[in-house]
């Protein structure tokens, strides 16, 4: 199974979205200096993750396997990207299902990342009986704004650095965008002087693009815009336990409540425009999808050999005495006899296995070579589908393994990936159209540096 990374507006309008998405989430992310993970695959369930630990090679090899999985979820070589200057397709790790569904391509990678809570504790909103958290946060923010407003009007950061038609981009806008970008990218600060100038120039270019896009987008009416803004701001507020944490998070990226509302409004307006103008009309034919598949079969669609297996584990401590190990092996032999006699493998695993996978009937999911300890791997790959092994010893104890599926090495069938290819190609088209529009708007715009 393969997936393509959820793409967004094109390179000329990617970073530009950094300040037009829900600003509270951005503030939260910047405040903890957490980079979003762009991987397109879902995280494994805790039970399954723990279960695999009992069959993997140990801490170091397990880390290697994890890195291997992560590598599969990153964008491959930029063959298609070179053609479009857009996002690259991503090959999904064969052993994990993807949680990514088709979403609006109008949203930048930083936007998708920004919508996810960075802290587990921040997921739950404060529950105050009879109180409106958003209203309280707004009132609290007013005091901050009143104190800072008079200072900000004369603050050096508020000097204009660029005019885009009738709109002004200030030094504060530039610094704020740069701060968010560097926090998300985990770039070490402060930057060297040359790197600082280069980063500022890139940020200004992106802010120019988003302003031009917004000026065009605002011509389209957005139904219930005020309500959408209020709802999205409330969702962002709900990621913080207290109003003060919310305000501090905004302050960490030099934002006020009004800033966040303004940026959220801009985000909604731009995404509505791209959806109506481009996304709704985008299409990719079967012929285009087939051509992409054939052109990129070896690069994106080759599957490694893999198996899916379940096991029953009788665990043994590494410091166990010979007598203790013998008792464990005897128990495993007895369990094997029960399975061979016809008892349901999953039922025996649930009742007897000491691995966390017991709750899943012993299911470890799919895995490739190099991901399990040698003895376990050798036995699993030697079995046919439906076949049960003898008792297999490893450093974790004694295993009884049943292979439930096998995947031969080779190319993924076109029919299995056709829809995802078509979706990816549609997003590419949208990206290119937005890029072209921004370039056209630049040609007629009055852009002046101060």
TrEMBL record:
UniProt lists compositionally biased (Low complexity) regions at: 30-45, 70-88
The protein's matches in PANTHER family, at most eight in alphabetical order, are given as: FOLDASE PROTEIN PRSA (PTHR47245:SF1), PEPTIDYLPROLYL ISOMERASE (PTHR47245)
The UniProt record lists the PpiC domain at 304-405
Q: Where is the signal peptide?
A: 1-27
Q: Where is the composition biased (Basic residues)?
A: 46-69
Task: Kindly provide the name given to this protein in its UniProt entry.
Answer: peptidylprolyl isomerase
* Region annotated Disordered, chain positions: 30-158
- Keywords assigned by UniProt? Isomerase, Rotamase, Signal
Q: Which principal EC class is assigned to this enzyme?
A: isomerase
Q: Which stretches does UniProt call biased (Basic and acidic residues)?
A: 89-106, 113-146
GO molecular-function term, one example from the UniProt record = peptidyl-prolyl cis-trans isomerase activity
**Which catalysed reactions does the entry list for this protein?**
[protein]-peptidylproline (omega=180) = [protein]-peptidylproline (omega=0)
Species whose genome carries this gene: Geomonas paludis
In short, the EC number is: 5.2.1.8
InterPro entries with a match to the protein in the record: PPIase_dom_sf, PPIase_PpiC, PPIase_PpiC_CS, PrsA_foldase, Trigger_fact/SurA_dom_sf
Entries under Gene3D superfamilies matching the protein: 3.10.50.40, Porin chaperone SurA, peptide-binding domain
């Amino acid at each position: 199974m393969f997936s393509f990374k959820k793409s967004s507006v094109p390179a000329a309008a990617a970073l530009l979205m950094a300040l037009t998405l829900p600003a509270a989430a951005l503030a939260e992310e910047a405040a903890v200096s957490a980079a979003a993970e762009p991987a397109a695959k879902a995280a494994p369930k805790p039970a399954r993750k723990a279960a695999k630990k009992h069959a993997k090679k140990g801490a170091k090899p397990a880390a290697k396997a994890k890195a291997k999985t992560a590598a599969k979820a990153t964008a491959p070589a930029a063959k298609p990207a070179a053609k479009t200057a857009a996002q690259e397709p991503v090959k999904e790790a064969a052993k994990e299902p993807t949680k990514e569904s088709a979403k609006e391509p109008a949203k930048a990678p930083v936007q998708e990342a920004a919508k996810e809570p960075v802290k587990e504790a921040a997921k739950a909103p404060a529950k105050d009986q009879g109180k409106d958290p958003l209203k309280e946060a707004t009132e609290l923010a007013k005091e901050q704004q009143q104190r800072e407003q008079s200072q900000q009007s004369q603050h050096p950061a508020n000097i204009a650095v660029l005019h885009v038609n009738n709109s002004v981009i200030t030094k504060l806008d530039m610094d704020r965008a740069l701060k968010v970008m560097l926090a998300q990218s985990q770039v070490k600060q402060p930057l060297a002087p040359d790197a600082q100038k280069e980063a500022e120039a890139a940020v200004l270019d992106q802010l120019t693009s988003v302003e031009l896009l917004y000026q065009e987008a605002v011509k389209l009416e957005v139904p219930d815009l005020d309500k959408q803004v209020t709802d999205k701001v409330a969702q962002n507020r709900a990621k913080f336990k207290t109003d003060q944490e919310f305000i501090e998070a905004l302050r960490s990226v030099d934002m006020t409540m009004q800033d966040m509302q303004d940026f959220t409004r801009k985000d909604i307006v731009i995404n509505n425009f791209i959806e109506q103008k481009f996304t709704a009309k985008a299409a990719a034919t079967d012929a285009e999808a087939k051509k992409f598949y054939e052109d990129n079969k070896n690069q994106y669609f080759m599957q490694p050999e893999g198996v899916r297996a379940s096991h029953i584990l009788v665990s043994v401590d590494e410091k166990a005495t010979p007598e203790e190990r013998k008792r464990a092996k005897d128990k495993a032999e007895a369990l094997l006899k029960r399975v061979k006699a016809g008892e349901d493998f999953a039922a025996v695993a649930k009742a007897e296995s000491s691995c966390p996978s017991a709750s899943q009937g012993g299911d470890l999911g799919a895995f490739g070579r190099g991901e399990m300890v040698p003895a376990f791997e050798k036995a699993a790959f030697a079995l046919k589908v439906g076949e049960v092994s003898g008792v297999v010893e490893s450093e974790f104890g004694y295993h009884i393994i049943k292979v439930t599926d096998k995947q031969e090495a080779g190319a993924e069938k076109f029919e299995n990936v056709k829809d995802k290819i078509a979706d990816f190609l549609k997003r590419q088209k949208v990206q290119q159209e937005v890029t072209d529009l921004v370039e056209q708007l630049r040609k007629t715009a009055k852009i002046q540096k101060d």
